[in-house]
């Protein structure tokens, strides 16, 4: 029997604002950051690593929220925790006092996500398999048990979820083999940051095509004339067959979004991402209806499964962009994958930042192997930033993610990076 | 010219769980708490006081979030801040890095609410008037300038808001005088906590009627048979004319809510509060349609104005229950009052906890004097807990709130209470 002996936290920040990497219409100067958690045990086995991605200021608040969970974890029996991850999730999310701080949204909910993801990293390492495979090897019943169906049953019952998973089960082994052989499709956002000039945009677009990508993404929403010019440059380089998604990062109101997107429509955007507030389900539905056949994508700032449920019920989004660290970890993302499958909407995860590619690839691959069973219109964001800090960095080749092979959730940051990027005392910040 | 010299914070907790005061179906053991902020200046004038209400664990996280705002406030020019409160709000809410932690929801958003409310307390004290009067005396143009209309304009434009306020302006002086003379209608939740036995429920219901209340509220959602029995007891004591609201505190899914409320309908509940997740706009709309003529009330956990907008657009709630410390302070609540007025839905604020009655009464009174212009179906929650800790406690007489007379927002806690209830080192907790 082993116990959790410590929950160690780190306020890690990377000075990305110095290069305008990651700049968009709402986030002009992000310093990519991780509120990072390590769950340690009293046996000789591995530790569990998880984090919340933030963009700088407030990362300390996020760390404080993770620390508030310490009494619920330290001293707990590791085998018991990992034997019933659905119950572990419910205990954390439904704590009768902490719940008030959301409920189920914002800093406290994301903090739970970090420790839930650290528990899954620990589970996968102890099982000696990558997380995507650990999840895919669960039975349909075990997968359903991960999910809290409270507030979901008007859209998806446990019985319906079970039916979906059982229907997907026969092909799992074949799809897992294909995933290992061929990888998972990726698109790149690297060319399209708003802070880049036209020459850099054009150069990076060409490099993306040369690297084998069949979809890129451009940030929009700062200035309409700029957006039209930048989209024209990209479309000229890409030709008609490479998909170009655009991303407004919540910049617009409903009517403004419709007007703006109509001006961009001649350049055939594959989707329009975050056209307005992530909370505005009815607004997204109105936008989606008005701009069709251009489609809406959202999710990276959608607070929880109840919001995703409604986006799907209202046909407000045509792509579900899960994020590995916005909701309460793997379990809640499994709920969202099941909802998306029920509504027949493809999941195209948000990534980038620091570690989001590493973390979310497992969920996209699990979705393909065990839930949706398809890669049609599924594609995983890729940004080539900060992977060098990870023990098991993503491997993207010829426009596709290779399936992770090492045990764990790929969320572990290397010790020298933990030391150097610790804010404010690490060498990078001193 | 004076400056903000300090933002002092306090983790204050009150051991209310020892008495089961405040117990309901989702919150069985709250320790009412305040993440408390004092803005100090370098002149001889007053300080500004504000807080976030929480229910215990995690209050330290909420304090950390308030502290993250310190660099944006300390050193700022007081007159400039108070001269343009709309701009001050936007600077805090739209900080390009902190925004990621919500956006506009949860711990970080509530922290902004605490300092925004502290600024309003400071403004009202410096003006020598209670907050409700300071707000009511603003011109329609000044009130519109308090509000950030981003994401609202599909439901309410600044021009429409101005029109609403101008229509209400001629009667302001008369309504203010009537408010001072007659007070504002209150209902009491004191009889109905789930932890109380039937005898205590009956006794407190009788006491509420004797005290002049014409509406009470009962917690429900734990056990249906218990709810039916308790509602029958209360209805027998109240007779047909006293209104009895019921409050499920988010306990149900959509279908469960409909089934449960139909069983309670014979006892004529005035409203059903928080039947399901506060995030579930479509769920509330479905419930409201199914249980009519019983009406839905919600708001105390609704994260921001974009969510309120949709609840109103979807006709999902028939009463808007603003909370003084859930959203980003006075400015955002003004936006919500304007939305409610546009949709013709009465505002019945959430109160109770510690200090929520003190804080929110000003907003209900401002709504009556300057926005909705009506008390029809408007009523303000009252719970007789912890008022003795406040410098300007609420005064409820014959079932009505008396209008505050002292300068400020009534949010100031007495120094001995700050010292005794500080967690974990105050005398109450040692």
Automatic annotation (TrEMBL), chains A, B:
Domain Mandelate racemase/muconate lactonizing enzyme C-terminal as annotated: residue spans: 198-294
Protein name stated in the entry: L-fuconate dehydratase
Keyword annotations: Lyase, Magnesium, Metal-binding
A GO MF label: L-fuconate dehydratase activity
EC number(s) from the headed UniProt entry: 4.2.1.68
Catalytic activity: L-fuconate = 2-dehydro-3-deoxy-L-fuconate + H2O
SUPFAM superfamilies in alphabetical order: Enolase C-terminal domain-like, Enolase N-terminal domain-like
Lineage, opening ranks: Bacteria, Bacillati, Actinomycetota, Actinomycetes, Jiangellales
Species assigned in the record: Jiangella anatolica
InterPro entries assigned: Enolase-like_C_sf, Enolase-like_N, Enolase_C-like, L-fuconate_dehydratase, Mandel_Rmase/mucon_lact_enz_CS, Mandelate_racemase_C, Mandelate_racemase_N_dom, RHMD-like
One Pfam family it belongs to: MR_MLE_N
A GO BP entry: amino acid catabolic process
Cofactors, names only: Mg(2+)
């Amino acid at each position: 029997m082993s116990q959790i002996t410590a929950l160690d936290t780190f306020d890690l920040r990377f000075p990305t604002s110095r290069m305008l990497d990651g700049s968009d219409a709402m986030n002009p100067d992000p310093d990519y950051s991780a509120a990072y958690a390590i769950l340690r045990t009293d046996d000789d086995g591995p530790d569990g690593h998880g984090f919340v991605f933030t963009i700088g200021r407030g990362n300390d608040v996020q760390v404080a929220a993770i620390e508030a969970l310490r009494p619920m974890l330290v001293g707990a029996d590791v085998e018991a925790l990992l034997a019933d991850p659905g119950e572990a999730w419910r205990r954390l999310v439904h704590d009768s006092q902490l719940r008030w701080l959301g409920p189920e949204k914002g800093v406290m909910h994301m903090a739970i996500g970090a420790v839930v993801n650290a528990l899954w990293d620990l589970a996968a390492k102890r099982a000696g398999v990558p997380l995507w495979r650990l999840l895919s090897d669960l039975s349909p019943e075990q997968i359903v048990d991960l999910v809290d169906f409270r507030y979901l049953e008007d859209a998806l019952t446990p019985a319906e979820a079970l039916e979906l998973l059982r229907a997907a089960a026969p092909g799992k082994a074949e799809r897992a083999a294909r995933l290992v052989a061929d990888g998972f499709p990726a698109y790149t956002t690297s060319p399209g940051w708003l802070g880049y000039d036209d020459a850099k945009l054009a150069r990076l677009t060409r490099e993306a095509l040369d690297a084998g990508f069949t979809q890129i993404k451009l940030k929009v929403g700062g200035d309409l004339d700029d957006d039209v010019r930048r989209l024209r440059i990209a479309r000229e380089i890409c030709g008609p067959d490479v998909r170009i998604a655009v991303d407004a990062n919540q910049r617009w109101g409903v009517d403004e979004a419709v007007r703006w997107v109509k001006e961009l429509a001649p350049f055939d955007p594959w989707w329009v991402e975050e056209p307005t507030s992530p909370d505005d389900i009815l607004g997204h539905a109105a936008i989606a209806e008005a701009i069709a056949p251009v489609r809406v994508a959202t999710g990276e700032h959608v607070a929880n499964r109840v919001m995703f449920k409604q986006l799907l019920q209202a046909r407000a989004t045509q792509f579900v962009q899960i994020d590995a660290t916005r909701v309460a970890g793997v379990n809640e993302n499994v709920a969202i994958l099941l909802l998306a499958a029920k509504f027949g909407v493809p999941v195209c995860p948000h990534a980038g930042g620091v570690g989001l590619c590493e973390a979310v690839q497992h969920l996209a691959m699990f979705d393909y192997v065990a839930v949706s069973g398809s890669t049609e219109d599924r594609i995983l964001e890729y940004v080539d930033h900060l992977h060098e800090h990870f023990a098991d960095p993503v491997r993207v080749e010829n426009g596709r993610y290779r399936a992770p092979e090492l045990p764990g959730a790929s969320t572990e940051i290397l010790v020298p990076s933990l030391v150097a990027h610790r804010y404010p005392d690490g060498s990078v910040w001193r």
